[in-house]
Amino acid sequence: MEDTTELNTSKLGTKKYWDNFYDLERKNFKENSEDTGECWFDDNDAELNMIEFLEDNLGQYNIRSDSSIMDLGTGNGHLLFELWESESFCESKNILGVDYSEESVIFATEIAKHKDLNNKIKFQQADIFQEDWNPGKFDVVLDKGTLDAIALSGIKVGDGKSTIVEKYSGVIEKLLQVNGVFLITSCNFTQEELIKIIETDSLKMFDNVRYPSFEFGGIKGSTICTIAFVKTK
Ligand SMILES: C[S@@+](CC[C@H](N)C(=O)[O-])C[C@H]1O[C@@H](n2cnc3c(N)ncnc32)[C@H](O)[C@@H]1O
């Protein structure tokens, strides 16, 4: 059977690439404070769709205006700033963006200060696969493009027998409260592949965002997918 957890490796799967990327974004921001950096999947309005999905599902599982929220591989923190500015989650006392790139964390913190949100949204440097990393449990965990980047690292674990992608659902389980929700947007994996990667005994898909689909060669698809999972136990 085809292995859906393996993608070709790319420089986008290396920390060095992201350090250089956010170092450049910081320089641009210093020159022009309007320039807060790249917004991944902007063409598909992924960010807006993720926020609208959470707003539409307020009251479902642990999605509340005071939910604790973590953004995995937060980059420039754009998703969290937009989420805050939507005003739907401004009762939250715990909004945390995590990234393994120090440059990302410095940059996102600079933007937070500039927006006067550094008391509301925090950023932390960590590799999410570090076993001794224990930031606590969250009501909502977000991923926009991070699993995609991780998959491109080609890192193998467990004596080279499995890919790092296979460890990802364990990270989500560790970070979520029971009834907590994981919302992920990916451009590298199809909905079926994401379900296969994420679902476990306790993580179950409960809904998805419907994007316009295309048909090519008799196969239907869309360029990105956004799926929500809930931790049931
Ligand atoms: C495609 S970017 C997406 C950034 C952000 N989520 C956004 O939508 O703009 C992928 C991000 O994942 C981060 N990342 C990759 N592997 C990581 C890991 N093991 N732990 C923490 N962050 C990681 C990268 O540094 C980068 O910021």
Automatic annotation (TrEMBL):
Domain Methyltransferase residues, every copy: 64-203
InterPro entries named among the record's database cross-references: Efm4/METTL10, Methyltranfer_dom, SAM-dependent_MTases_sf
GO terms of molecular function: protein-lysine N-methyltransferase activity
GO cellular component, one term: cytoplasm
Domain of life where this protein originates: Eukaryota
Role: S-adenosyl-L-methionine-dependent protein-lysine N-methyltransferase that mono- and dimethylates elongation factor 1-alpha at 'Lys-316'. May play a role in intracellular transport.
Protein name per its UniProtKB record: Protein-lysine N-methyltransferase EFM4
Family: Belongs to the class I-like SAM-binding methyltransferase superfamily. EFM4 family.
Protein location: Cytoplasm
Taxonomic classification: Eukaryota, Fungi, Dikarya, Ascomycota, Saccharomycotina
Enzyme class: transferase
GO biological process: methylation; regulation of translation; vesicle-mediated transport
EC number annotated for this UniProt entry: 2.1.1.-
UniProt keyword annotations, A-Z: Cytoplasm, Methyltransferase, S-adenosyl-L-methionine, Transferase, Transport
Any Pfam family the entry gives: Methyltransf_31
PANTHER family documented for this protein: EEF1A LYSINE METHYLTRANSFERASE 2, PROTEIN-LYSINE N-METHYLTRANSFERASE METTL10
